[in-house]
């Protein structure tokens, strides 16, 4: 199926290129691994698929010459009747393979993010599938995590990235990115508008605003379990929509300093706000400012139809859709700019234990002298 500009949506699978799709869905969410995709078509004179088109075949979905996603076909369904031939191909992005497959270890061990990626991804069973990894910040790559037998590759990678203060996501070309998805956001030049009465300046089909404050607190205290008694290391008051105080006390055993407590507190507040405020917008087409919509964009919204939707938003996710009834549309999952928080950098407790043990021995020796 081509749009009015002659743009073609084509799927390359095996050694075959298929276009003329009747329906397409391609999801991409920063906070959700293994995003789903699906394509289907119906032809009165359809032909059987060649042998190279099968489940587990590698695929790439293109919009003209730009890659939308790289993946593996999880499922292929064919149907035939007197009226014609139907085909549906679906799957998940390459994070699905990392979720399905286990880390090839048989005893629990401590491992760094760098070793995990080099040994078990780039040089492991999935080396032909995930061929590249991009790490934004390598300052904390020596931090280790515990990996247990049967643990999935994705869980191990996500956990190992978290202790370096970084997030993990998949790029359209199938490479693995580790860092901050909003480190260098593209600011969309064209504002999203839904102004009443409707006129030609509007480019939004629908808007939906969500304000779930069940996880929002006006007073938060972070406590440490170090020492004989608990002590408050950090606390903050926040402006909320509640008319009364809501206190939340969080105990974090691995927090030792005021700076660490402040960082933990800041992340708690941001995570709560990320969940509390959201906007969903549906727009025509898959293109904005001459490029495909992508998670990680920044966009401004202008509307007089919803009281709290106007503002600066971040694209946490987008879903491309194609149908014969509605054509191409993009559904945007928007969060307030600044509410995204990176994982907290983790200090290896094993190193702390070694330091304390060494100090204890020295003290004992001093006493004997």
UniProtKB/TrEMBL annotation:
<dbReference type="InterPro" id="IPR054034">
    <property type="entry name" value="NMB1110-like_C"/>
</dbReference>
<feature type="domain" description="Baseplate hub protein gp44/GpP-like second">
    <location>
        <begin position="95"/>
        <end position="179"/>
    </location>
</feature>
<dbReference type="Pfam" id="PF22255">
    <property type="entry name" value="Gp44-like_2nd"/>
</dbReference>
<dbReference type="Pfam" id="PF21683">
    <property type="entry name" value="GpP-like_1st"/>
</dbReference>
<feature type="domain" description="Tail protein NMB1110-like C-terminal">
    <location>
        <begin position="271"/>
        <end position="337"/>
    </location>
</feature>
<feature type="domain" description="Baseplate hub protein gp44-like N-terminal">
    <location>
        <begin position="9"/>
        <end position="93"/>
    </location>
</feature>
<dbReference type="InterPro" id="IPR053981">
    <property type="entry name" value="Gp44/GpP-like_2nd"/>
</dbReference>
<dbReference type="InterPro" id="IPR049354">
    <property type="entry name" value="GpP-like_N"/>
</dbReference>
<dbReference type="Pfam" id="PF22174">
    <property type="entry name" value="NMB1110-like_C"/>
</dbReference>
<feature type="region of interest" description="Disordered">
    <location>
        <begin position="343"/>
        <end position="369"/>
    </location>
</feature>
<feature type="compositionally biased region" description="Basic residues">
    <location>
        <begin position="353"/>
        <end position="362"/>
    </location>
</feature>
<dbReference type="InterPro" id="IPR023399">
    <property type="entry name" value="Baseplate-like_2-layer_sand"/>
</dbReference>
<protein>
    <recommendedName>
        <fullName>Phage tail protein</fullName>
    </recommendedName>
</protein>
